[in-house]
Amino acid sequence: MNPFQKNDSKETLFLPVSTEEVPPRPPSFPEKPSPKICGSNYPLSIVFIVVNEFCERFSYYGMKAVLTLYFLYFLHWSENTSTSVYHAFSSLCYFTPILGAAIADSWLGKFKTIIYLSLVYVLGHVIKSMGALPILGGQMLHTVLSMVGLSLIALGTGGIKPCVAAFGGDQFEEKHAEERTRYFSVFYLSINAGSLISTFVTPMLRGDVQCFGKDCYALAFGVPGLLMLIALVVFAMGSKLYRKPPPEGNILNQVVKCIWFAISSRFKNHSGDNPKREHWLDWAAEKYPKQLIMDVKALTRVLFLYIPLPMFWALLDQQGSRWTLQATRMNGNLGFFVLQPDQMQVLNPFLVLIFIPLFDLVIYRLVSKCGINFTSLRKMAVGMILACLAFAVAAAVEIKINEMAPHQPDSQEIFLQVLNLADDEVKVTVLGDENNTLLAESIKSFQNMPHYSKLHLKTKSQNFHFQLKYHNVSVYTDHSVEEKIWYTLIIREDGESISSMMVKDEENKTSNGMTAMRFVNTLHEKVNVSLGTDASLIVDEDYGVSAYRTVQRGEYPAVHCRTKKEDFSLNLGLLDFGAVYLFVITNRTNQGPQAWKMEYMPANKMSIAWQLPQYALVTAGEVMFSVTGLEFSYSQAPSSMKSVLQAAWLLTIAFGNIIVIIVAQFSGLAQWAEFIFFSCLMLVVCLIFSIMGYYYVPLKPEDVQGSANKQTPPNPRKYDQPGNQEDKALMVP
């Protein structure tokens, strides 16, 4: 196993195939001398291909890292809709490689396919970035541009997925097979580098840079788009150096036709007049060569084991959706560094680089020394169990987050908090059938209230009558409220008496791990508050209440403010993850206007580091499942079927994402219950897979290769020249 190779479920890595498995074959295109790197046997052209792959993977994963939060907070979709569209896009990215392979093998060839579909790819990024510009139209236009852009990106990334790595393999002469194998190690390393760096950088571009007063999604999408343009330019620069094999025909098409002909022939001859066949594929012998039928038989044995696989991908790909949404409700302050919620995804490629050599060089060897027969199918089953455990841990984390989160008002309930901005204490009583004193003691001037009080309503909406005792004088006031809403009753000076106003706090929901704030202005003139964004916040005079504004977590020691008469600064202090604050602008001393701070909602208490165990478990499961599964698959099918296995493997990932869409849209479960549901479902599928594996009789490599060597089709074109299929198998997204 290659220690540098990234076992990325999203990447679907296919290990380089040893040249010893494939009999020598004549070149299928004219040999072309290629300049070498520093006198070595490595063609200079592969430099352009490796750089292209790095930039393309940076482009894809960088864009995808911030996609869920873009849906949630820019397009204002629900969590379920955001999750569903995210996985629909991921699924489409694994259906389109079938189209890309067909175009390359049957029509344009790999080089032109990469060029043309990369242009589509770049166009998709441009349209996607335009859809993230707040000044460009409304939400409908943003949604349309986003969907069009994502569709083009899916076509581009999926279309070139089966071409780039294989095209790199084409650059090597047959006598340089060892160098070609090493090239694939570097190729996979470039995938890791692109994925690792982009998953860390693009969330910073989104969160640390402000565009039009908000998170800069346009920049977070634009930079990956620029990298894809660079990838295209770099790839085109090497055009004169490439060896460009002509289209050879699509073996997948031959396999599908063979299977369809066998099935249709079987049903056409069900009368029993014709002799029975040993295998149902033998019904295709009238039209297709025996060798193709034998290879398809070997293929179907492996494809049968693929049936349970989509469930694993359904769990694995939720790192970018459900787990990212979970991270938004956690505290990203690690002490030495502050993590954005979508940056947690960087753990996956980082841990993959650690786990692959760890498992290959240490764990598997220790297991072998203990005398345990740790077969490939057993490794895959253990990988499934680890994914199951990862979601059980995710459910436990979710339950703990819910326990720490403030409770929400139920039907016929409201939560009320009193803010006393008068110069003396006030006692507040709710009048009604049951007089309810909100606090046993009077509320002092500018007193920080520890919590909201729960009030019960008789109907969905109701008028509450309040008695405010101030300087031995009772003031009566009425306020209308609606169920399930948070309110603040603000008491203010009104001449020598007091008055009150009821303010809704329903918008005090923070997003994306950010902090939210609003201002109350007690001055007699408007205040323009600059929060370091392009848009200012204007607070009306005489107890005007601003809208909520979300900002990044951090220290705000000098926030610039302006009135018609003067400029001044306010010290807001530390604004923490997920907290909601109220700032009252006052001028009660000779030191000028100041901000009095009140915490409406406490900061997220649970550290984002608690997600590390679930990421470690699911990544370990990925390493055991994906690399092992591909090695096993390739050992059980002829080399001519490797490209078909590639297509089938990609389709299992596509169907796994569809499973997530179905559950997100129709389950109606709470998030912790959904995690448990996926965990239990994975356990059931693991049991089914284990039973299937128990009855599966593996073929030895020499048996697979031997059957392929016994008979060779007399006409290579009749088999669509499968001799080059081992290169087609070396494909990564």
From TrEMBL:
GO terms of molecular function: dipeptide transmembrane transporter activity; symporter activity
Pfam families referenced in this protein's UniProt entry, alphabetically: PTR2
Predominant cellular place of this UniProt entry's protein: membrane
A cellular component annotation (GO) from this entry: apical plasma membrane
Basic and acidic residues: compositionally biased ranges: 717-733
Membrane topology, as annotated: Multi-pass membrane protein
One GO term (biological process): dipeptide import across plasma membrane
Bilayer-crossing regions: 58-78, 84-104, 116-137, 143-164, 185-205, 217-237, 298-316, 346-367, 379-397, 647-668, 675-697
Region annotation Disordered: where it falls in the sequence: 1-32, 705-733
PROSITE patterns for the chain: PTR2_1, PTR2_2
Gene3D superfamilies, A to Z: MFS general substrate transporter like domains
Subcellular location: Apical cell membrane; Cytoplasmic vesicle, Phagosome membrane; Membrane
InterPro entries assigned: Alpha/beta_knot_MTases, MFS_trans_sf, Oligopep_transport, POT_fam, PTR2_symporter_CS
Keywords assigned: Cell membrane, Cytoplasmic vesicle, Glycoprotein, Immunity, Innate immunity, Membrane, Peptide transport, Phosphoprotein, Protein transport, Symport, Transmembrane, Transmembrane helix, Transport
Catalytic activity: glycyl-L-glutamate(out) + 3 H(+)(out) = glycyl-L-glutamate(in) + 3 H(+)(in); a dipeptide(out) + 2 H(+)(out) = a dipeptide(in) + 2 H(+)(in); L-alanyl-L-alanine(out) + 2 H(+)(out) = L-alanyl-L-alanine(in) + 2 H(+)(in); glycyl-L-leucine(out) + 2 H(+)(out) = glycyl-L-leucine(in) + 2 H(+)(in)
Function summary: Proton-coupled amino-acid transporter that transports oligopeptides of 2 to 4 amino acids with a preference for dipeptides. Transports neutral and anionic dipeptides with a proton to peptide stoichiometry of 2:1 or 3:1. In kidney, involved in the absorption of circulating di- and tripeptides from the glomerular filtrate. Can also transport beta-lactam antibiotics, such as the aminocephalosporin cefadroxil, and other antiviral and anticancer drugs. Transports the dipeptide-like aminopeptidase inhibitor bestatin. Also able to transport carnosine.
Protein family: Belongs to the major facilitator superfamily. Proton-dependent oligopeptide transporter (POT/PTR) (TC 2.A.17) family.
Subunit structure: Interacts (via extracellular domain region) with trypsin.
PANTHER family linked to this entry: OLIGOPEPTIDE TRANSPORTER-RELATED
Protein's recorded name: Solute carrier family 15 member 2
